């Protein structure tokens, strides 16, 4: 979905440069996502199921003391308004795998410590792109 790619791209740029995701951007993503769900005539049940991975990520953010940011969790939740649960899950897995790999490389090379914060939404964008190509 082009709307999701554009929104993830904008959020990725902001997240990469500031390590924060503005609420106004999340509100816009939510509005566009709701409109997209209605336009695609998705059932309420399929949308609800697609929101679950993001809700689980929000719980993980809470339980880890925000090792995973709430903004990232909200982005994953809102992705469920655009795509199916399997695409959201695949995007998350790919994004986490790529982010983890980059983190290990940064730590091993001495460029970052274990507590270094990295922007996660660029990895979600990459994960979504790879998911769309390979699924």
Instruction: Look at the structure and give the mean pLDDT.
Output: 94
What percent of the residues sit in helical stretches (DSSP H or I)?
over 70%
Q: How many DSSP H or I helices?
A: 6
What is the CA-based Rg, rounded?
15 Å
Report how far apart the termini are: 13 Å
Any idea how many domains? 1
Biggest sheet overview: none
General shape: globular
How many beta strands in the DSSP annotation? 0
Low-confidence stretches: none
- Encode the helix/strand succession as letters: HHHHHH
Question: What structural class do the secondary elements suggest?
Answer: mainly alpha
Strand percent estimate: under 5%
Task: Describe this entry's structure for a reader.
This protein has 135 residues and is mostly helical. Helix content is 76%, strand content 0%. The protein is built from six helices and no strands. It has helices at residues 2-18, 23-39, 44-63, 70-79, 85-108, 121-134. Helix 1 (2-18) packs antiparallel against helix 6. The radius of gyration is 15 Å and the shape is globular. The mean pLDDT is 94.
Topology record:
Layout: H1 2-18, H2 23-39, H3 44-63, H4 70-79, H5 85-108, H6 121-134
Helix pairs in contact: 1-2, 1-6, 2-4, 3-4, 3-5, 5-6
Keywords:
mainly alpha; transmembrane helix; globular; aspartic-type endopeptidase activity; 0% strand; Peptidase
In a few lines, what is going on in this structure?
By secondary structure, the protein is mostly helical.
